[in-house]
Amino acid sequence: RGQSDARTHASPQRTTRGMLRTVARNASRVVRGPHHTPKRGMADGPPGGYFADGVQGEGHVNGRLFNETPPPPGQSRKWEDWELPWYLGMGGAAVILFFGLNAKPETSATAWAKEEAQKRLAAEGK
Fold it and tell me: Which of 37, 87, 104, 105 is the most buried (most CB within 10 A)?
């Protein structure tokens, strides 16, 4: 027999193992009952999905960020003590990153090769 025959025809032992596995799986479903929920994996996300209502505490009002009550009409929200330094620090970091990354030298191999080719062409052209 060639290799292709061995691959296309399943051995009786493999077929028997597969049937036994299927029977065992179905029997375990019967024993557990119809309302058994399977175990969840780590990548399945929270129960109900990411955008479900979830379990909220008593008196929780949906639609408010951090359950913070809005100020009365005509008044502005009072900042917490940590907010000004946080906004200044994040804004300053963004400015430093923007200008710092734009001012960094070009160190790629293609930039070096382009500069070297221009030098060699200039030397040959004289």
Answer: 87
CB 35 within 8 A of CB 43: no
Provide the residue type at 75 as one letter.
Answer: Q
The tens digit of pLDDT for each residue in 9-26 reads 666 677 788 888 888 777
Q: Which residue has the tokens 């907010």?
A: 83
- Contact by Cβ (8 Å): 79, 72: no
**pTM score above 0.70:** no
The Cα-based distances of 35 to 10, 38, 104 in angstroms read 36, 10, 61
Distance CA 82, CA 89 (A): 11
- Other residues' Cβ atoms within 10 Å of the Cβ of residue 105: 5
Q: Return d(Cα 27, Cα 39) in angstroms, integer.
A: 18
